[in-house]
Amino acid sequence: MKLLLIVPHPDDEVYGASGTLMTYLEEGHVCGLVTLTHGEAGRTLGLCDGPEELSRMREVELAACLEVIGLPVHEQHAFPDKYLKDQPREPLIAVARDAMQRHQPEIVLTFPPNGSNGHPDHVTTHQVVKAAWDSLPEGQRPRLWYYASDTPPENEALLAQWLPPNTRHDVTRFVTRKLQAIGCHRSQALSTVDFMRKFPERITSETFYEVKS
C-alpha cells in the first residue's frame, strides 16, 4: 500500500488529502483509510435528528465521497465521537498498529501534534498513531506524514506545536473531483466553508509535514 490515512472523523480524509489519494490511485497504487468514529457528535444543520441519525447520514456521505475519490479500502470503527481523549489508549493504539502491520503502507498520514485546529479528537488521534508508529520495530515503520499548513495558527497554544509543511503536492488537475468529493459531506457544509475561507490555497496544493527519523 502506498498511503494509509488514520483519522477520527468522516470528512477528515477529503480536505487535505483527496487530491493526493487520487494522484496515487491513478498511478496504480493501493491506498486506504481508517476512520475511528462515525462523527455522530458533529453538526446536523437541521438535516437529521440526533446522533444515531447523523451517524447513518455521515456513513452514507463518506461512502459517496470515497466513491468519487476511487478509494476502495476503508475501515470504519465506532469509537465515541468527541470523546476519544476519554477512551483507554491501548485499544486505539492497537487499531492503528494493526492497520499499519496488515496494510504495510509506505506512508501513514494523520493529524499533527496540535490537531491542526486543536480539536481533541484530532489531537488524540495524533497521539495514538504516533504511539503505534513508535511501537513498531524501526525497520518496519512507514514514513509518517502530518497534515500541515503554511499559515501559522493565531492561537498561541496551537502555534507552539505548529509544524510547517516540508512536502507539497500540486493537485490542480483533480480539483473538480476534489470539490465533488468535499461536497458529498453535506452535513459538514460549515466546515467546508470555514476551510475554503481560511485555506483556499489548499484546494489545489496539498501540504504535509514528513517526520524525519
From TrEMBL:
Q: Does the keyword Hydrolase apply?
A: yes
Q: What is its EC number?
A: 3.5.1.-
Q: What top-level branch of life does the organism fall under?
A: Bacteria
Q: What Pfam families has UniProt attached to this entry? A: PIG-L
Which Gene Ontology molecular-function terms are recorded?
hydrolase activity
Provide the alphabetized UniProt keywords.
Answer: Hydrolase
Record-given protein name: PIG-L deacetylase family protein
Phylogenetic lineage: Bacteria, Thermotogati, Deinococcota, Deinococci, Deinococcales
